[in-house]
Every structure is written in structure tokens, then in C-alpha cells.
């Protein structure tokens, strides 16, 4: 699966995303991170499916704008 996350530009959200995925035993095999002005975009290739509960936790990160799972 691939996870697409967009947020206000901040290094804090990247750490929180990795913490949430790690707590769910989801490995990030590759990550691309870009910033554009005040916004950051992360594209994560992950090794396991993401549950709705994990997506909910990711959406709850402060300054997170949107989380999408691409199958």
C-alpha cells in the first residue's frame, strides 16, 4: 500500500507518522517528502495494510491536512 499525507510544513508530523505506523507494526519501506511553501507532502510505501484506526490517528495529528491510502 501507499500512504499520502499532507500537512503544514513541520518536521514534527513526520516523527508522529512514523511513531503511529511503528506502534501498528507497519514498516515504511520508502518515503518521499517534499515541501511547497507552508505545506509538506509525504508519500510513504508501507509493507502492510493500514486500518481505519491508524488512518484516524494520522488524521488527528496537529496540522495534518489530509491522509489518503492508495492501494
Overview of the structural elements:
The protein has 71 residues and is α+β, with helices and mostly antiparallel strands. It is 30% helix and 44% strand. It has two helices and four strands; from the N terminus they run E-H-E-E-H-E. The protein has helices spanning 11-23, 52-59, and strands spanning 2-8, 28-36, 39-46, 64-70. It has a four-stranded antiparallel β-sheet, covered by helices on one side. It is globular and about 30 Å long. The mean pLDDT is 88.
Topology readout:
Elements: E1 2-8, H1 11-23, E2 28-36, E3 39-46, H2 52-59, E4 64-70
Can you count the helices? 2
Spatial shape: globular
| Class based on secondary structure composition and strand pairing | alpha+beta
Order of strands across the main sheet: 2-3-1-4
- Describe the main β-sheet briefly: 4 strands, antiparallel
Helical residue percent band: 25-40%
Rg result: 11 Å
* Number of E-state strands: 4
- The SSE string, one letter per element, is EHEEHE
Features:
single chain; 71 residues; alpha+beta; four-stranded antiparallel beta sheet; 4 strands; 44% strand
Amino acid at each position: 500500500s501507499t500512504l499520502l499525507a499532507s500537512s503544514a510544513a513541520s518536521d514534527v508530523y513526520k516523527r508522529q507518522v512514523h511513531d503511529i505506523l511503528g506502534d501498528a507494526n507497519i514498516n515504511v519501506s520508502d518515503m518521499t517528502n517534499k515541501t511547497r511553501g507552508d505545506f509538506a507532502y509525504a508519500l510513504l510505501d508501507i509493507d502492510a495494510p493500514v486500518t481505519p484506526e491508524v488512518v484516524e490517528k494520522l488524521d488527528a495529528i496537529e496540522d495534518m491536512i489530509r491522509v489518503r491510502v492508495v492501494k
